[in-house]
């Protein structure tokens, strides 16, 4: 047994049956025995352009061959970082965006939370420190992200940072009540996944995102869109909030920005939020990780964007959105299933019947394993199994995903 300690894994059971993935090709991945699996989850919600894309691999290799990396602290820079920052800012739904790079989603949440508080400190409202988040939310596993976790099991490592308050996941009036009860002058930012992902694939109720953004605007609270899952095509646009007509103050991205070809994340801050740090002599945002603007990671980002645009993957996501939901609804009458969720982006879930789940809390795990035995990868979540296939998925792949999931449900019924 290797010394490799897996994230989010009960190592005692991993010990007996690790699955070693050795290569990937479009929507397929292969293990070390040569078994082929349909990737029904785009790995961990990130392989939006599919596996094994030569164009991205070549762009990364070319950059590594020229310069693997050099720090971007202070006034050092590199061309891939500058290019990708401009490409992202040009596609982001906020005004005059400035892009701060990190190594992943959790880093980026920390960055957004610190920036929100420091922004208010810089403009003379240092009492605005409270960070709001939603029930069921997932914002990574770093310090602030753990504090902002709406999934109770992810908060076990407390104590948490002060001034973090949870709001209902689905009710903008509840958000406003929380702000008013706290005193709006104390609230810095509201963190919001356009569709809650790891918390169970929960599309927002009609009008919720728009109303929540309006509540934030009215009370001077920054709206932080966590587009780590929802961005880069998953909802058919770049930042997952465009379809709601919302212009966030800060947008957080990771995962799909490189489709997993390199670790990369970041935030886009609107011109207003960046201004105190860009326009005030001597004022800096004292924050940043060693690999911020890593040239090979940024080269992967630019190549991913180019490939998405060449292959029309945003439009493809719009086509897949109803097709995935239709397939899931087609198996939602299974006795183990309560209902199908989805229809906002290429994201879906089958929620288990609460009574069956009460008798067998490991149902999601068992269905996931049964589907894997049959060559299809889906995601077990608290009370559901989830689906987020690559955007290159075809109708035939969706048929296979649904067929095998139905068979896996039968296997464990
Ligand atoms: N935010 C959201 C919405 C996520 O789904 C995730 C990871 O799944 C993160 C933040 C954290 O990203 P990372 O795992 O890259 O730290």
Automatic annotation (TrEMBL):
Pfam families: Aminotran_3. Belongs to the class-III pyridoxal-phosphate-dependent aminotransferase family. Its EC number is 2.6.1.18. InterPro entries: Aminotrans_3, PyrdxlP-dep_Trfase, PyrdxlP-dep_Trfase_major, PyrdxlP-dep_Trfase_small. One of its GO terms (molecular function) is beta-alanine:pyruvate transaminase activity. This is Omega-amino acid--pyruvate aminotransferase. It comes from Pseudonocardia autotrophica. Keywords: Aminotransferase, Pyridoxal phosphate, Pyruvate, Transferase.
């Amino acid at each position: 047994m290797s010394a490799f300690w897996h994230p989010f894994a009960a190592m005692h059971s991993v010990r007996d049956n690790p699955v070693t993935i050795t290569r990937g090709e479009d929507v397929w991945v292969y293990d070390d025995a040569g078994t082929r699996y349909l990737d029904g989850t785009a790995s961990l919600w990130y392989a939006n352009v599919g596996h094994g894309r030569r164009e991205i691999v070549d762009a990364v290799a070319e950059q590594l061959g020229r310069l693997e990396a050099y720090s971007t602290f202070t006034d050092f820079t590199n061309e891939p970082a500058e290019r990708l920052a401009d490409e992202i800012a040009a596609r982001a739904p906020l005004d005059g965006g400035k892009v701060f790079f990190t190594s992943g989603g959790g880093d980026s949440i920390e960055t957004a939370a610190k920036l929100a508080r420091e922004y208010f400190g810089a403009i003379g409202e240092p009492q605005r420190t409270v960070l709001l988040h939603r029930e069921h939310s997932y914002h990574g596993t770093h310090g602030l992200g753990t504090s902002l976790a709406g999934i109770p099991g992810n908060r076990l490592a407390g104590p948490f940072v002060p001034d973090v308050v949870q709001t209902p996941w689905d009710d903008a009036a509840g958000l406003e009540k929380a702000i008013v009860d706290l005193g709006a002058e104390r609230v810095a930012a509201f963190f919001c996944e356009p569709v809650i992902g790891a918390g169970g694939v929960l599309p927002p109720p009609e009008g919720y995102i728009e109303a929540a953004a309006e509540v934030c605007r009215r009370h001077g609270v920054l709206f932080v869109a966590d587009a780590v899952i929802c961005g880069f095509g998953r909802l058919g646009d770049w930042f997952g909030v465009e379809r709601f007509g919302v212009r966030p103050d800060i947008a957080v991205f990771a995962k799909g920005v490189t489709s997993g070809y390199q670790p990369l994340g970041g935030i886009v801050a609107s011109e207003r939020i960046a201004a105190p740090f860009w326009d005030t002599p001597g004022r800096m945002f004292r924050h940043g990780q060693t690999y911020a603007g890593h040239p090979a990671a940024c080269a992967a980002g630019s190549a991913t964007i180019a490939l998405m645009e060449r292959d029309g993957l945003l439009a493809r996501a719009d086509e897949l959105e109803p097709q995935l939901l239709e397939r899931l609804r087609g198996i939602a009458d299974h006795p183990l299933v309560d209902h199908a969720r989805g229809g906002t982006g290429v994201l879906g879930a089958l929620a288990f019947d609460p009574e069956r789940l009460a008798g067998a809390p490991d149902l999601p795990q068992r269905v996931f394993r049964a589907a894997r035995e049959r060559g299809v990868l889906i995601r077990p979540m608290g009370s559901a199994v989830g689906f987020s296939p690559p955007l290159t998925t075809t109708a035939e792949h969706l048929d296979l995903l649904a067929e095998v999931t139905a068979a896996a449900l039968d296997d464990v019924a």
